[in-house]
Design a protein that fits this description.
The protein is of the alpha+beta class. It has a single domain, classed as Cytidine Deaminase, domain 2 (3-Layer(aba) Sandwich), CATH 3.40.140. The protein has helices at residues 35-47, 68-73, and strands spanning 2-6, 12-17, 51-60, 79-86, 89-98, 105-108, 110-112, 115-117. It has a 6-stranded mixed beta sheet. A two-stranded antiparallel sheet has the order 7-8. α2 (68-73) links the parallel β3 and β4. The radius of gyration is 14 Å and the shape is globular. The two termini are 21 Å apart.
Amino acid sequence: MLVGAVWPDGVLAVRSVTSGANLSARGRDRFELDPLAILRAERGAREVGLEVLGFWHSHPDHPAVPSRLDTERAWAEYLYVIVSSSADGTGDVRGWRLLPGAGGFGELGMAVDGVAAEAGR
């Protein structure tokens, strides 16, 4: 989970990243996040005045672009960070948010330690 705060200007500031078990039997190409991990992250975030802003997962040997399954299971208002990976290591890290209606995902610009990252990189 991505834990942080929403700044007054609407910027999502991720302060920490947690992980949870993948309950899917097809763990290489599917994910089903353990609901108890989400609850633990929400409780822990509230204890320090933060909130769960979204979720992250990897796409082994695939681009860091939401899949059909990602789109079907996404919750509105959350940030989704997808990391492409391969035997060579980590590739792109890209942020997404579900668009209103049936519009799928829109990519978000991201910054790391205050340095803006180009979309798609």
